[in-house]
Amino acid sequence: IATNPFAEGLLYFVKEKKYNYKFLAVEKVRLTLQVIGSIIGAVYFLAGYMSLWEIEWYDGVVVCMTMILFTRMAGSRTRFAPFYPVDVSKELEQNATQFINVMRHMSQDQMEHFVARQIMMERNQNFLTLVPDFLKYLYAIMPDRKNMVITVDELSELVENAEIEVAKQLRAI
């Protein structure tokens, strides 16, 4: 019952991590464009205020306001929409919720065997290093942690064992 939601959730977890990095990269470019345009406008205003290059202060104000408006329009989120990655948080949450419902009722031994099987599955081989992080994520989003069969200490031991199993599997590959 839990194999498919776990594997799909792990896949979406990886996509969500990549999404976060790509989203931040696009935001850095967008904000850099806005800041550089504003700085150029401010420099032009200061040049006009100090009467450099035969520029009047009111010309500098006009250029500064134009640059700020231009960078706000050219660097808006709607203009950068094609560069943003596709968000998969809804799918991740659906699969994680399905697995959490099963995970809540598993004992430590059952969870260890389940995680060991997931590590051995060929479907999850590309994402082995993220299995322990995914388990931590599942625990973090779990709404009723007190209703779990295993304790927090047992879960942290399970995550440590999963890291060891992942290292063994990676060495075997």
Keywords:
mainly alpha, 6 helices, elongated
Describe the protein in words.
The two termini are 27 Å apart. The protein is built from 6 helices and no strands. Helix 1 packs antiparallel against helix 3. The chain is elongated. By secondary structure, it is mainly alpha-helical. The protein has helices spanning 3-49, 57-74, 89-103, 108-120, 131-141, 152-172. The relative contact order is 0.14.
Layout of secondary structure:
Blueprint: H1 3-49, H2 57-74, H3 89-103, H4 108-120, H5 131-141, H6 152-172
Helix pairs in contact: 1-2, 1-3, 4-6, 5-6
Q: What about the largest sheet?
A: none
Q: What share of residues is helical?
A: over 70%
Estimate the strand proportion. under 5%
What is the gyration radius calculated from CA atoms?
26 Å
Please, how many helices?
6
What value does the average pLDDT take? 88
* SSE order, one letter for each helix or strand: HHHHHH
Provide a quick synopsis of the model:
With 173 residues, the chain is mainly alpha-helical.
